[in-house]
Fold this sequence. Notes:
Layout: H1 7-16, E1 21-22, H2 23-34, H3 38-51, E2 54-57, E3 62-65, H4 69-73
Antiparallel strand pairs: 1-3, 2-3
Helix pairs in contact: 1-3, 2-3
Amino acid sequence: xxxxxxxxxxxxxxxxxxxxxxxxxxxxxxxxxxxxxxxxxxxxxxxxxxxxxxxxxxxxxxxxxxxxxxxxxx
Length: 74
């Protein structure tokens, strides 16, 4: 799998590589760590979903990483 992720998308992936999280949890962590607002985080999550790096499921917009850190580092 060859997915190109930008720095902003990698910030979302860093959260998800530690374990599944809701979009709200991701937004709260990235607001604290980077100062992003909720809309910015949700937009980046959607980009990751479109690229096939993240899977979203209900309830609560639960996000799951579909690619491993090793795949991105290659």
